[in-house]
């Protein structure tokens, strides 16, 4: 939020002409004096943000407009008096508290002018404003003085416009001719992302004005390692580094003497911040030295960390220039592996009241952070931008080991290799039937918390309930890759093995140990996972075909069913096979002997 003030110098010059008795009339024609029936006007203020606003009009000066016509731009105000909302007793203190106005008054109040407090003469004060209106920063400074010299009572008029779409109007009606301070109600935008309006306006007719919206903003993107390919969603494997970029711009700080600029990042549990050493900050493409900012870990209000720019007001002259904050995080083993993903949120805390005297935290080492309400000293008012988010998704591959009849086999071991196997979670679960359980067994051997229904009975093994048994046989095991990039793990008792925590990449799956009594499957299965992620979904593909992980397939993109065949059983030494061999051999020998004797007798008979 940012308060902005605009003082109409043309209007101020009209005041000066009145004060010194100068005529702004043309040579011909009779002057037109505003009548009571003409002396009621309205101000319509168009907001430029989504916040609710309560606009207030405070009368500073009142008088009568005199000119050649009602639309005469050279008309002057006569009979100038202090407005109903100015407390003259507060003006001196307000001037003394504003170095710009105080210096201007001292330069203006020469012996010839003899203009000094108490400030009873409204016309002389108006003349002072007009004479100094061309000085740098004076318009903003005199508006500060008036804001501090208002009466304690209600404003002349106020109107509220609700939160919601921009370009909606609040209209203040029934205002008489004069000069008004138009402002947002004090504190009405505390902690919000609206923009305070605070300006002086000459009112001689109905007018439409815009509330100047100049609150800073912040956005967040994921990039490649080189800072390119900006996106709000990404996919990754456990152990991968994620590159983040925050985008903002130097706000308008003309009215400020101190300004806070603090980016606060909140990472989900599946992301590990890589530390202050990964943070870089640049303004207008120029990287700042490390001593131009610091990083708080953790940050306030539960944030993972904060990046605080030191003495941010020094960049006032670079208004509108790009600010980039870059840092990295790593997808860890605690990541969400479903379609919920792993979000990362940032917002910007900033100074929002140019009238405030910002003191910073009581600790002198932290002048660039606002003092909080629960700390000694005044509370430094701040605003906060809407959060900007990105999200990272990860997935997995599931193996189902079965025999030739489709029954689950346990004891098989598989190896997965590929670029995304730095640290993969091997899911080995154990379930037991239990009436108090919350799981149901599906015919594919997996378990789901979706209750059994008659309509979906074909999907379920039965309507029996199961519970997850948490013991040494039911674990999520983080398998670290070997130097060759391979992960190995066993299937569970139901024949399942899930390699979870995988991102895009080309993977190879191979059986390395077969269940007892079965032949190993020598096939090497090639699996290619790709994605086109957005913030809402990863859009996974396997082999170019779209897939949608769900709870019923353990949130994986693929279930690879691998069949093992039983091995051939050879006879054991000394067993029945040997006996059979001996018997058959003996019969053959005996047969040969009989054949030999018979043949010999035949030969003798000849």
Low-confidence stretches: 1-32, 579-584
Would you tell me the overall average pLDDT?
Answer: 80
Q: Approximately what portion of the residues adopt beta-strand conformation?
A: 35-45%
How much helix, percentage-wise, in residues? 10-25%
In one word, what is the shape?
elongated
Structural class call reads: mainly beta
Query: In angstroms, what separates the terminal alpha carbons?
Result: 132 Å
Sheet of most strands: 7 strands, mixed
Radius of gyration: 41 Å
How would you explain this protein's 3D organization?
This protein is mainly beta and 606 residues long. The protein has 4 domains: 202 residues, no CATH class; 174 residues, Immunoglobulin-like (Sandwich); 132 residues, Immunoglobulins (Immunoglobulin-like); 29 residues. Helices cover 14% and strands 35% of the residues. It has 6 helices and 37 strands. Strands 11, 13, 17, 18, 20, 21 and 22 form a 7-stranded mixed β-sheet that branches. It is elongated.
Write a short abstract of this structure.
This protein is mainly beta. The chain is built from six helices and 37 strands.
List the helices and strands and how they pair.
Blueprint: H1 9-19, E1 32-33, E2 41-46, E3 53-67, E4 76-82, H2 88-96, H3 99-108, H4 122-132, H5 138-148, E5 157-161, E6 169-175, E7 178-184, E8 198-203, E9 207-210, E10 219-223, E11 233-235, E12 241-249, E13 261-267, E14 271-273, E15 280-283, E16 286-287, E17 293-296, E18 305-309, E19 322-331, E20 342-351, E21 382-384, E22 388-393, E23 395-402, E24 413-418, E25 423-428, E26 431-433, E27 439-442, E28 447-448, E29 460-468, E30 475-480, E31 486-490, E32 496-502, E33 505-513, E34 524-531, E35 540-542, E36 545-546, E37 558-563, H6 576-605
Parallel strand pairs: 2-9, 11-22, 23-37
Antiparallel strand pairs: 1-3, 2-6, 3-4, 3-5, 3-7, 7-8, 10-12, 12-19, 13-18, 13-20, 14-19, 15-16, 15-19, 17-18, 20-21, 20-22, 23-32, 24-31, 24-33, 25-30, 25-32, 26-29, 27-28, 27-29, 33-34, 34-35, 35-36
């Amino acid at each position: 939020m940012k308060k902005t003030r605009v003082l109409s110098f043309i209007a101020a010059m009209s005041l000066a002409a009145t004060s010194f008795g100068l005529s702004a009339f043309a040579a011909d024609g009779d002057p037109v004096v505003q009548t009571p029936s003409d002396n009621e006007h309205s101000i319509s203020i168009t907001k430029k943000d989504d916040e609710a606003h309560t606009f207030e009009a405070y009368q500073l000066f009142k008088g009568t407009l005199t000119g050649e016509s009602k639309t005469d731009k050279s008309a002057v105000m006569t009979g100038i008096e202090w407005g109903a909302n100015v407390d003259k007793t507060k003006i001196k203190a307000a001037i003394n508290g504003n170095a710009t106005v105080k210096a201007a008054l001292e330069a203006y109040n020469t012996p010839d002018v003899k203009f000094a407090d108490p400030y009873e003469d409204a016309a002389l004060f108006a003349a002072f404003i007009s004479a100094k209106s061309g000085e740098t920063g004076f318009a903003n400074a005199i508006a500060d003085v008036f804001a501090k010299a208002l009466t304690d009572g209600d404003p002349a008029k106020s109107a509220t416009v609700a939160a919601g779409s921009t370009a909606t109007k609040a209209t203040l009606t029934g205002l008489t001719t004069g000069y008004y301070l138009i402002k947002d109600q004090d504190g009405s935008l505390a902690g919000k992302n609206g923009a305070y309006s605070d300006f002086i306006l000459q009112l001689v007719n109905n007018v439409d004005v815009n509330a100047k919206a100049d609150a800073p903003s912040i956005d967040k993107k994921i990039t490649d390692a080189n800072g390119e390919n900006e996106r709000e969603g990404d996919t990754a494997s456990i152990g991968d580094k994620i590159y983040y970029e925050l985008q903002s711009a130097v706000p308008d700080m003309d009215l400020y003497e101190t300004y806070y600029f603090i980016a606060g990042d909140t990472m989900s549990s599946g992301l590990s911040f890589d530390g202050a050493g990964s943070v870089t900050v640049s303004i207008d493409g120029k990287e700042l030295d490390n001593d131009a900012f610091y990083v708080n870990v953790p940050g306030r209000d539960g944030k993972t960390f904060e990046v605080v720019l030191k003495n941010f007001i020094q960049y006032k002259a670079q208004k509108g220039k790009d600010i980039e904050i870059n840092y990295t995080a790593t997808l860890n083993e605690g990541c969400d592996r479903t379609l919920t993903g792993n979000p990362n949120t940032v917002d910007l805390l900033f100074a929002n009241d140019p009238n405030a005297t910002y003191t910073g935290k009581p600790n002198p080492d932290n002048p660039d952070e606002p003092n909080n309400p629960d700390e000694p000293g005044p509370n430094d008012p701040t605003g906060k931008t809407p959060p900007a988010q990105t999200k990272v998704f990860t997935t997995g591959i599931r193996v189902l080991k079965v025999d030739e009849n489709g029954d689950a086999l346990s004891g098989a071991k598989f190896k997965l290799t590929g670029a995304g196997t730095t640290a993969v979670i091997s899911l080995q679960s154990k379930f037991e039937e239990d009436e108090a359980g919350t799981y149901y067994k599906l015919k594919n051997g997996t378990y789901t918390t979706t209750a059994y229904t008659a309509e979906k009975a074909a999907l379920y093994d039965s309507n029996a309930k199961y519970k997850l048994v948490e013991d040494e046989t039911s674990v999520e095991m983080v398998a670290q890759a070997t130097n060759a990039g391979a992960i190995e793990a066993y299937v569970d008792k139901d024949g399942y093995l899930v390699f979870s925590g995988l991102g895009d990449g080309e993977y190879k799956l191979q059986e390395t140990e077969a269940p007892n009594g079965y032949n190993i499957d020598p096939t090497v299965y090639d699996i290619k996972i790709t994605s086109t992620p957005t913030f809402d979904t990863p859009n996974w593909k396997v082999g170019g075909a779209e897939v949608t992980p769900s709870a019923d397939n353990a949130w994986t993109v693929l279930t690879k069913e691998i069949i093992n065949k039983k091995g051939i059983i050879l006879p054991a030494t000394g067993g029945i096979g040997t006996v059979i061999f001996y018997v058959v051999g003996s019969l053959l020998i005996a047969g040969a002997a009989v054949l030999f004797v018979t043949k010999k007798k035949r030969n003798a008979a000849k």
